[in-house]
Write a structure and sequence with these properties.
The chain is an all-alpha fold and about 120 residues long. It has helices at about 10-30, 35-55, 60-85, 90-120.
Length: about 120
């Protein structure tokens, strides 16, 4: 039996995949008046963003972390409002704000892994 481990980048992408799955599900639930399920999915979305916020390493990249912190804070606040108002448009706003980040991570993580692999093979 072989154990597999995920890199921090792979974990980050998995968190974003789950986050977007929950956000889109909540948006759809609110549109279809499935308010309890929508709130449950928003709660899960909020928890993921909270974990992303806690994982920021301000010592390594303070400017990037400050920008991400601002985005995550905005999204968490908007999720709270969406949950209170059961407002699909507010959920859509969070998706719109986070989509460029997800796209950037989707490109950056495999590239960083390729570079890391190249450096290990050269050494």
């Amino acid at each position: 039996m072989q154990a597999t481990t995920s890199s921090p980048g792979e974990i980050l992408l998995a968190l974003y995949d789950g986050l977007f799955r929950f956000l889109r599900g909540a948006e759809l639930c609110f549109q279809n008046k499935q308010l309890v399920k929508g709130r449950e999915l928003l709660s899960k979305s909020h928890a993921i963003i909270s974990e992303l916020l806690l994982a920021l390493d301000h010592g390594k990249s303070p400017e990037l972390c400050a920008q991400l912190e601002s985005i995550y804070d905005y999204c968490m606040g908007t999720i709270v409002q969406a949950n209170l108002k059961t407002d699909a448009q507010l959920v859509s706003d969070v998706i719109r704000v986070l989509t460029p980040l997800r796209e950037a991570w989707t490109q950056a993580v495999p590239e960083a892994q390729r570079q890391s692999s190249t450096l290990r093979n050269a050494g």
